[in-house]
Amino acid sequence: MASHRWAIILAAGEGARARSVTRDCAGAPVPKQFWSPGSDGPMIRWALRRAARLASGRIVTVVAARHRPLWEAAIPAEVLADVVVQPENRGTGAGVLLPLLRVLQRDRDARVAILPADHAVEDEGVLIRTLQRAFDLADRGRSALLLGMTPDLPDPAYGWIVSGEAHADGSRPVLSFHEKPAPGLARRLYRGGAHWSSFMLVAKARALLSIYERSAPSLVRSLARVYDRGFSASVNGNSVASLERVYSNLPVLDFSRDLLERAATELRMLAVPACGWTDLGTPDRIERWRRRDRDRRFEHAQVHAA
Prior knowledge:
Layout: E1 5-11, H1 43-55, E2 59-64, H2 68-74, H3 77-80, E3 83-86, H4 92-106, E4 111-116, E5 120-121, H5 124-139, E6 144-149, E7 159-163, E8 172-179, H6 183-191, E9 195-204, H7 205-215, H8 217-228, H9 240-248, H10 255-260, E10 268-272, E11 277-278, H11 283-305
Helix pairs in contact: 4-7, 4-8, 7-8
């Protein structure tokens, strides 16, 4: 089944909330997926390395047309062939569906991992093992598995997942979602054992498409017609004009709110043990992550110096 494992990297966002911090070497603001916090290169490369550990050679990245100079410089040449270019931002609903249809064009039995390109993780091994476990469960019949992150504080700026008792395979039924709850509710969710919603999931591609067909059928029809005409949204720009026409009439849909939350009874959650995860979505989160990263690097240097 490993040959049917794919990764979709979401790298088309603007990162507006963090742009006061995420700047290039000349001081100009850039979306955080193209920001280089240190010596490890831009964050999109972190996501590409993560994806390569799960689905080497089967990685599709969705980017924005207006960011072309940034992604052409940041994405290695061997990955550029599988870049899908959005002509404009119509929400994460379209942002996930467009690359999903590309994958299904090539592999009707695909299992896909959805990986945002703006996540920082201190212990990659913990996250990778959970994602691999999710792929194993998808191979065994689970349709869609969300990754719930173990929280380290009651942050009300995250989405939260409330889940039920764990099944023998480790997955849990999803009971409810709470998107950016009030601080008091966030504290109750934290104390009650809820998890942060990471926007990461592993699913059978056709099962994920079925969720779209039930919740956003007009979106599916619009983008499927483009693919039916042999559309290829790659770097060479084939059929860009037709995709621009389609996008100009698309509804703005949020993948979590308008699709996943409506399909909660079909979803399972896998809890990810504490691994120092953050999505670096705000300046405050970036500063907290920087402090932890400095402390971790200092401790690492002290151990090696001893």
